[in-house]
Amino acid sequence: MSLSFNPDALSLPIGHFIGGKLVAGGEGIEMKRPSDGRSYGQCPVASPEIVERAVKSAKAALKSSNWGGVRPRERTKALQAWADLIEAEAETLAKIEALSSTRPVGQLVAGDIAVTAEQIRFFAEFADKEGSDLVPTDDQNLGMIISEPYGVVGAITPWNFPVSMAGWKIGPALAAGNAVVLKPSEMTPFSTVYMAELAVRAGIPAGLLNVVLGDGQTTGNALTGHPDIAKISFTGSTRAGSAIMENVARTGVKPMTLELGGKSPQVVFADADLEKTACAISGSVVFNAGQACVAGTRLIVEKSAAPALIDMLIARMKTVRSGPTWNETTHYSPIISQRQLNRIGSIVDAALQAGGECLIGGQSMEGAGYFYEPTLIANVDQSSPAVVEEIFGPVLTIQTFETEEEALALADHPTYGLASGLFTRDLSRTIRFARQIQAGTVWINRYSRSRDHILPTGGYKQSGIGKDLGRDAYLANRKTKSVLISL
């Protein structure tokens, strides 16, 4: 059966999801489909009063269900049932997300949604395997470190991978015994609402997962500044993360997990397998049209290998064909909005005016929708706008080096340190670089995540605080207290 669908005939779950039900309310934000630029509806904006209602629902559900205090295996079973239902409803979920997002429907079913279900199962298994500890003391005392859920966790997810990012936030928080109030991006909200509906259908108590729609200024500020939100988890830009920290500081103190911007280097030595390297690098830039915080958008290649590698990259990028996200055969994504499309173009133009050379691409694609050509820019230095700015588009800069020291210096970015790639056959060099590169993730002879969900992700410098995925994400949703008993 084909996954392709008519975007004008799709029914959407429009509304906030509070206490297990769709709730109307709030003035709407006009929404446009990235694939053709057509308006298709409005996203409600939750007022502070609606956010208050969602937080109260979460608190009440925690108390009535005793979610944080039940036998941990019960949480595991409920989350596993939710993951099963997400897989069973993958086609419907994929169509809702593909309509408004940059993610092609075929990639969603085979990739994003399947991986999200896996990750929820992964976090579910922590519920009865991570707990409190007895610690060494003298024989007149008993020392314990007791682990507890925070209570109500506030989460905010971005528009580039709506289902995946929701799973990153909700999975560990619920597994750890918390309730969640989540705000998805106002540009891609409805797939998250449908995920919440599936959670209730799977048996997770109504009210434990609430979704409020809206923008950052109104809804986001009300959520992050709410006194009953015990912890914040956010994925998005560094600027937005800074604004959240400022808002939290004005209203109190609470822990935060922030996965923020990136400008990740891919360092290639001449001894690398250049065919496999070209495949990995082009894939990382073309995937979702470069709209990923970990996108490897800075190629730093040994001078002797540069001509051959560049030719391979150009050949691969010439094969890209755009298409609407509701077509099953589409592999190349649109840009999320006209505003973002314009921003990409302006940074590329500024880089060229500063002396950069465009080897391929460099402009918007003709036709409907917000599409930008895969772009390679050579002859750039560390001050080029295309090297400094997180473009969030399919734009790769090229710099060359002759020594390891030069490569490391070029790889270092003054602002970001989210991810990095290294391509070489030299094992000693691999270890040296993995230790010295300032990034939260180092991929060697690849540039992509695997389905090894135990590996955490998070940044150095202004690329974030804390980790998503892995054991770290689960533990970040638990707080600890020390207990010392005199015997």
Concise description?
This protein is an alpha/beta fold and 487 residues long. The chain contains 15 helices and 22 strands.
Structure, explained:
The model has no long low-confidence stretch (mean pLDDT 96). The chain has helices at residues 48-65, 72-88, 90-100, 105-124, 162-175, 190-201, 216-224, 238-251, 274-286, 306-317, 338-353, 385-388, 404-411, 427-436, 470-475, and strands spanning 16-18, 21-23, 28-32, 39-44, 133-135, 141-149, 152-156, 179-183, 209-211, 231-235, 256-259, 265-268, 298-302, 357-360, 375-378, 395-401, 416-417, 419-423, 441-444, 460-461, 464-465, 478-486. The longest helix has 20 residues, at 105-124. The protein has two domains: 7-260, 3-Layer(aba) Sandwich (Aldehyde Dehydrogenase, Chain A, domain 1), CATH 3.40.605; 265-451, Aldehyde Dehydrogenase, Chain A, domain 2. It contains 15 helices and 22 strands. Strands 14-15-16-13-12-18-19 form a seven-stranded mixed beta sheet, sandwiched between helices. Strands 9-8-7-10-11-21 form a six-stranded mixed beta sheet, sandwiched between helices. The chain has a three-stranded antiparallel beta sheet with strand order 5-6-22, with no helix packed on it. By secondary structure, the protein is α/β, with parallel strands linked by helices.
